């Protein structure tokens, strides 16, 4: 409030009037007002962003759980198949040959390599998650062992291809041999039939035909 002296005839008095507000006073008043809308909007935005990230993480975990469940069923089926084969082998129900043994050995090496690689990735994921490491660090964990497993898998695949090529050539040769033997067999049967039907005439035989 401002004090203003007022002269009116013989009387003197004091009157009060409000002080005019200037631009500086208006700015100070605006600065003192709480910015409730801005803070509220910021909290809402961060909350929505966090919810989206959590939902995305949940979706990935559910996808991983589905894969793990299918992998579990696959493992159980493979174990059942191996048990059946063990039972058949113990009863001498499976023919043994060099090629089949080699093929089984190569297949086992390939399968063990892939399973080992998957196990390494899963172990790295669980270990880093438990220790609170960033997810991107999983890519650097056990990188050497993973590279070695991939190299072994590549070599196994190449050996399988070479063996398959050799088996194909061997089968082709055996097929040609079988065809040749069948042809010779047919020729011998025809000769035998002809010999029995038209026996050769002896030189001293005077039998008239």
Order of helices and strands: EEHHHH
| Overall pLDDT level | 73
Helices, by number, come to: 4
Main pleated-sheet profile: 2 strands, antiparallel
Content of β-strand: 5-15%
- Using the alpha-carbon principal axes, give the shape: rod-shaped
Please mark out the parts with pLDDT under 50 across 5 or more consecutive residues, or reply none. 1-16
Number of strands: 2
Q: Cα distance, first to last residue?
A: 162 Å
Structural class: mainly alpha
Helix content: over 70%
User: What value does the Rg take, in angstroms?
Assistant: 47 Å
The strand line-up of the biggest sheet is 1-2
Biased composition (Basic residues): 27-37
Keywords: Coiled coil
Protein name: Suppressor APC domain-containing protein 2
Region (Disordered): 1-37
Polypeptide structure, described:
It is a single chain. The N and C termini lie far apart (162 Å). The protein has a two-stranded antiparallel ribbon with strand order 1-2. The radius of gyration is 47 Å and the shape is rod-shaped. It is mainly alpha-helical and 209 residues long. The chain has helices at residues 23-32, 36-90, 98-131, 143-197; strands spanning 2-8, 11-17. A hairpin with a 2-residue loop joins strand 1 (2-8) and strand 2. It contains four helices and two strands.
């Amino acid at each position: 409030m401002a004090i203003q002296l007022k002269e009116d005839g013989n009387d003197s008095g004091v009157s009060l009037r409000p002080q005019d507000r200037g631009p500086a006073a208006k700015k100070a008043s605006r600065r003192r007002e709480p910015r409730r809308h801005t803070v509220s909007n910021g909290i809402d935005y961060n909350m929505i962003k966090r919810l989206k990230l959590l939902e995305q993480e949940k979706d990935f975990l559910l996808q991983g759980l589905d894969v793990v469940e299918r992998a579990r069923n696959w493992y159980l089926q493979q174990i059942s198949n191996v048990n059946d084969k063990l039972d058949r082998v113990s009863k001498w129900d499976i023919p043994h040959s060099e090629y089949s043994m080699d093929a089984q050995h190569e297949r086992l090496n390939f399968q063990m390599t892939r399973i080992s690689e998957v196990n390494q990735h899963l172990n790295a994921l669980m270990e880093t998650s438990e220790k609170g490491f960033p997810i991107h660090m999983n890519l650097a964990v056990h990188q050497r062992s993973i590279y070695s497993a991939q190299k072994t898998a590549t070599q196994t695949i190449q050996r399988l291809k070479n063996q398959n090529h050799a088996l194909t050539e061997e089968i082709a040769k055996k097929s040609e041999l079988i065809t040749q033997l069948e042809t010779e067999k047919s020729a011998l049967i025809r000769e035998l039939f002809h010999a029995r039907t038209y026996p050769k005439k002896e030189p001293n035989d005077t039998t008239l035909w």
